Amino acid sequence: MKVSVIVFPGSNCDLDVKWAFEVCCNADVSMVWHTEKSLPESDVVVLPGGFSYGDYLRSGAMAAKSPIMGSVVEFASSGGLVLGICNGFQILTEAHLLPGVLLPNVSTKFICRPCKIRIEQIDTPFTFLYKQGEVVNFPIAHHEGLFYLDDTSLAKLEESGCVTLRYLNNPNGSLNAIAGITNASKNVLGLMPHPERVVHPLVGGQDGVRFFKGINEWVKEIRR
Ligand SMILES: NC(=O)CC[C@H](N)C(=O)O
């Protein structure tokens, strides 16, 4: 499986997610600097966590205008798998690949801790190795994690089964405790928690292993 991780000035989870793909599924991972205009051959494109452009203006707003994003949008539109973790989720909403916006946490504090997350949808390339309703531990680390959407669009998002992950104890005040969503065709996932931080017992857990293994199996299935 070929994975491209987009690196923005201020990304800081780029190497963690590269390692997660390597350790979980022996993936071939390329790091792609944001000023590139085209993607290498890819099965999956990842927008990693961090503080792209120092979170100036709004988290993800400037990164969404980076030269590489034209190719990322094209890749997503053609059905390619796109994964945005934390700052990557913020970039996906700013690029309008996903609906809604991530606002400052209701506490106005940066929150960094383990978090219980319920898997709400398993009919996605990212979550199908989990059980429906399973509760996992994925850490969170963000200041702007409050997922917000207008009432009508939120109802539509829920009805269409695009709410993929939900917090058990809503740490940031997200509407409907939403932690992760997909687009309608479910090839684009954005989530605030960090599955790449729980892929080895040495780093505090393994609940993220099936997330990355699942992506790999999904890609291999498509290729077959
Ligand atoms: N870990 C991250 O990706 C941080 C996301 C973002 N910069 C925030 O603080 O909300």
Automatic annotation (TrEMBL):
InterPro entries: Class_I_gatase-like (IPR029062), PRibForGlyAmidine_synth_PurQ (IPR010075). Coiled coil: none annotated. It catalyses: N(2)-formyl-N(1)-(5-phospho-beta-D-ribosyl)glycinamide + L-glutamine + ATP + H2O = 2-formamido-N(1)-(5-O-phospho-beta-D-ribosyl)acetamidine + L-glutamate + ADP + phosphate + H(+); L-glutamine + H2O = L-glutamate + NH4(+). Its main location: cytoplasm. The keyword Nucleotide-binding applies. CDD domains: GATase1_FGAR_AT. This is Phosphoribosylformylglycinamidine synthase subunit PurQ.
